[in-house]
Amino acid sequence: MPKKPLPPTLRERRRYIQFKVHSNKKHSREEVVRAIWKNLHENLGTFHTSKSSAWVMDYDPKHQKGILRTNHKKQLEVKTSLTLLQDIKREKAFISIEKVSGTIKKIRETLEK
Amino acid sequence: MARKYHDLLVFNEECVEFGEKELGYEKVHMQDINYIEKQLKTNTNKVNIAKGGDLKRNRAAVNKKNIDVLLDPVEPKQRDFDTALATVATQKKVTIAISLNKLLKYQGMEKVQYLRSLDYLGKILRKEGCNIVVVSGATEKLEMRPPQQLATIGTLLGIKEDQLRDTVSINVEKILRRK
After folding, report:
1. A42 to chain B: nearest residue by CA?
2. CA separation (Å) from B115 to A12, A76, B122?
3. What's domain A14-112's superfamily in CATH?
4. What's the ipTM?
C-alpha cells in the first residue's frame, strides 16, 4: 500500500532564499555547501539545524549564486546564521541574501535573469 | 516612503564605496564619525562613538557630554552595564551600538559567553527603552553585510522581527538628526 502524504495543514511551509557568495576567489558548489552546513551547525546546533530543514537546492559556480531552502519558522535564525559566515575554505567570504520567496518558481526566474 | 539604510561605523574607504554601490546602503559613515577608544575627546560637528567594554569606560561615556553612541558595552565574561547606566543613557539620549566585527572575532566557548552577555544587555536595553543600533565596524569590504542581514544581529539582543530593520535605519537617523 503506497505511503500517504502529510495533509496540507501539517506540511511545513518552505522558504527559498536566493543568495550570492562574495569572495576574492570563486568557490565550487561543494565548498559552499560544506561552509553553509558548518556555519548552521556551529550557530544553531544539531537540533535547530534539523528543525530548519535547510538544504542547498541549486548553486551556480560561475555567478556564485544559489538557492537555499528552509522552513518558514526558522527563516530568521538561518538568515542570522548566514550573516555570521565569514570564510569558505579559509578564504575570507560572506553570503548576501538577495531574495526570499515562498515558491521556487519565482526564485529560479530571478536567478536566470 | 522607502527606508534608508545606514552603516554607522566602518574603518576603510573601500567599505564606503562597496556599501553604497553594491549592498544598498543609503550612506556608509566614516568621515563624519569621531571614534573614541581612549581619551574622551569629543567633536561637536561629528557623531561621537565611544568604545565601551568595562564599567569605568561605560560610565564615563554615558555621563560625558556630547557622546552620541556607546559601542559594545559588554564583553564575553564582563557584563559591566546595568539598569542604572541604561536609565542614564536613555535620559541623555546616548545610543547603544553593537558591532558585527566584534562578534565575528569570537569562536567556540568565548562566542557562547559573548552571546549570553548580549542577551543580558538586550533585556536591560529593552526594559529601559534605549535606542539600539547595529553597525558593521568593517575594516575591509568582505566584513560588510547587506543592511537587512546586518539588522538580523538584533535578534541576539531579543529585538522583535518587525523592529529589526529600525536598528539600521530609523534609529541611526535619530542620531544624525541631532547633528
Report:
1. B108
2. 29, 17, 10
3. Ribonuclease P, Pop5 subunit (3.30.70.3250)
4. 0.85
